[in-house]
Amino acid sequence: MNLDSLRSKSGFICDMDGVIYHGDCILPGALEFVDWLKSEDKKFLFLTNSSERSPRELKEKLDRLGIHVESSHFYTSAQATASFLVSQRPGGSAYVIGEAGLTNALYEAGFSMNEINPDYVVVGETRSYSYEKIERAVNLVRNGAKLIGTNPDLTDSMGKDVAPGTGSLIAPIELATGIKAYFLGKPNPLMMRHGRKILGCSRKETAIVGDRMDTDIIAGIHCNIDTVLVMSGVTTEKDLKKFPYHPRYILPGVGDIPGL
């Protein structure tokens, strides 16, 4: 496979879990890949469907793994959600089931937290999940609040284990209300377009690197940019046969992009 066209791209949008690390373990070639992005003066952005952590916290995590990049190189589904909501209802309010990365992004966008009559019920991945929160969310949505999910992922990777993702956590609210949530994370093209806008690169100049066919790769296809599937994450060779679409490149890991 000739990778010259890929290596000549000026912008790279990269997923994180399954691409750069698994849980708290850095993946082979990740450090060298990021060093190559820097040395070749590439524009790059880590685009993650996780809404738990802020860009600063994600920067600190990579610091601990030995990869040093500025927080401006991160864009999360929490930020994408906040950007969308403020474009729809500036100064609005939300009832949030999620972690600090989500609530902070909403606060920074000028939203307030509201448990009585919010404009939106917003759900992200969280470990502080309870029947009481589901019950409140259901009744708020039934009373007119719009239901928003930070991403549609059914599971999140926890190293070798998996945890329920936002798509699973929001499902009881959808079932109890009969209302489908609107999801802002990948594969929603809005998140990809905003990521490309941050990079300042055209479609032809940009590639997306990810490990999931149903989020990363289809998001790239929707936005008409070249797609790179790395086999260091959740997707297996057997999985590829299940999908009616195909990535432009399939590589063992990100270290193969610069040809390490």
Please tell me about this protein's structure.
It is a single chain. The protein is α/β, with parallel strands linked by helices. The protein folds into 2 domains: 4-49 and 187-256, HAD superfamily/HAD-like (Rossmann fold, 3-Layer(aba) Sandwich); 78-183, Rossmann fold, CATH 3.40.50.1000. The chain contains 10 helices and 15 strands. The strands form 4 sheets. The chain has a 6-stranded parallel sheet with strand order 5-4-1-13-14-15. Helix 6 links the parallel strand 8 and strand 9 (146-149). Helix 4 (77-88) packs parallel to helix 5 (100-108) and helix 6 (131-142) crosses helix 7 (166-177). 47% of the residues are buried. The model has no long low-confidence stretch (mean pLDDT 94).
Give a brief description:
The chain is α/β, with parallel strands linked by helices. The chain has helices spanning 4-7, 30-39, 55-64, 77-88, 100-108, 131-142, 166-177, 189-199, 213-222, 237-240, and strands spanning 11-14, 21-22, 25-26, 43-48, 74-76, 93-97, 112-113, 120-123, 146-149, 155-158, 161-164, 182-183, 206-210, 226-230, 249-251.
